[in-house]
Amino acid sequence: MGWTFPWASSHGSDFNYDFNVSFTEEQQHEGSVEYNFEREDHPMEETPASSPVAQHAASCGTDVPTYTRDLPGMSAFVLEDGTIYHTYSTYARGLDILWGMYQWLDRAPKGRNEKGMWWRRHDEYDTRTEPSPKKKKISR
Prior knowledge:
Elements: H1 15-18, H2 25-30, E1 34-35, E2 38-39, H3 51-59, H4 64-67, E3 73-80, E4 83-91, H5 100-105
């Protein structure tokens, strides 16, 4: 369609810290982490870490504290007449709409069927060890 629009990245800036999606080691040790407008008490901060969080950290080649220093978040802004307006922010499961496949999975009979590491990277699908669900014949 030939549409173009500018994208911006927060990489290398303090933006993620300002919007409470990145945290320092000090903040973690002090217990002053606020994410999605809540102070701690979210699954990413459980001690010991829940199995999925620990598995996600390990799959990224890092430890849990390092993994949980950057959490998911998305913000939108508009520049109008030289003024920047913050128009939208979302965190955690609010980001699911940006992952197109999640919308289909959420409508499936068993939803995402989440148990432990429920997602795989494209090159890991052949390592699946769970049995495939049996198809049920529907009589009419």
